[in-house]
Amino acid sequence: MEKIDPPNAHEYGDDDDNFSESFSFVTSSTLTFMPGQFEKTTTVSVSQNAGNNYKIEAAAQNGNPSQGIPNQVVKSETLTVWRRLWVELDQMAAPTEGTDPNQFNPATKYTPGASGDRGDITKNQWMDGDENSTPSNEPTDFDVKFQPPKPDITLLQEAMLAACIEVKEVDQLGDTSWITGDSASQNSGAWDLTTPFVKNLADLTLAAGYDISTPSRDVDYNNSSFWCIHGIGAYEANTGDTWDGNSVAGEDNYICGVTFTGSGVFLIFNETIRDIVSTKATTKDGKTIQRTVSEIQQLVVLHEVLHMFGLIDKMKLNGTVNPLYAPLGDGPIMRSDWFFSPTCCTNTFFK
Ligand SMILES: [Zn+2]
């Protein structure tokens, strides 16, 4: 019996293209049948890499090839390794009004139409709304007060099927035996669906990400038996960077989401996404945003989760091209082109 590695089921599939077969694997085994024996069992183990596939070929030594009588050969169906990626989806709590840095100051509230048209909106004002609010003539650091929605994994679920990964949302109304390693969360032993509202992250470090994640993280992502990551609907990244906080008109790198290496946590910045859509943000070389809020929310989720699988951004935050970016391996989702054109890529997920 022999293990065969047929082409993986994607457009670049080829023979012997399984990823990392360094684990202990039976590549061939010989079964000896005694007279009258018709059935034997052997064990073949497969890797844990999603998309790896196998056929098992059994060749009976019952022919006589030198006399033109071939051995009988039977091949199994293709066996493909699928993995399940669980996502614990949470969101920040709704912001409140007050003078704390993480509150909306009533003194700066803007009421549309109260004193003329929206051309009156000035810096540091805010209005009530939702992530689809699109006030006209909006200054780039104007805020809309809404509760960040939890991340939308619709596109992620669709796209990851190509990698033989089934993405499922953790049922946070269900079995509490899933809740492990959450002693630092707000309600230890119970599901936490919201994390406290934070208007701007302290910075884009792992520690700042954990500050957002830990209060609502319920499932331990350090377990060895299954994958579970944590996605949080957040408001904005840190101030002083691109686009909300102290935005810089004409910057290319909007921080619409972030993930932290090794953390299993990603954040989606919903006010930044709302902002760049409502202002039709323009880059340094004159490209404008051509996506809807919903499209960008979904594309950023896919982008951030792919970082967890090792994919690399084309552009660094300082605006230079990352030499580690590989057009074929990292693909269009790790470029920012899809912000700017509905027809930038031939990939089905970007149309
Ligand atoms: Zn990225």
Describe this structure in words.
With about 350 residues, the protein is an alpha/beta fold. The protein has 2 domains: about 1-80, no CATH class; about 85-350, no CATH class. It contains 5 helices and 12 strands. Strand 11 (about 255-260) and strand 12 (about 265-270) form a beta hairpin. It is elongated, with a radius of gyration of 26 Å. The two termini are about 45 Å apart.
Low-confidence stretches: none
Major beta-sheet overview = 6 strands, mixed
Strand content is 15-25%
The best one-word shape is elongated
Q: What is bound: which ligands?
A: zinc ion
What distance lies between the first and last C-alpha atoms, to the nearest angstrom?
45 Å
What is the alpha-carbon Rg in Å? 26 Å
Helix coverage percent = 10-25%
* DSSP strand tally: 12
In terms of quaternary structure, the protein is single chain
Class of secondary structure makeup: alpha/beta
Arithmetic mean pLDDT: 84
* Total domain units: 2
**Total number of helical segments?**
5
Secondary-structure element pattern, one letter each: EEEEEEEHEEHEEEHHH
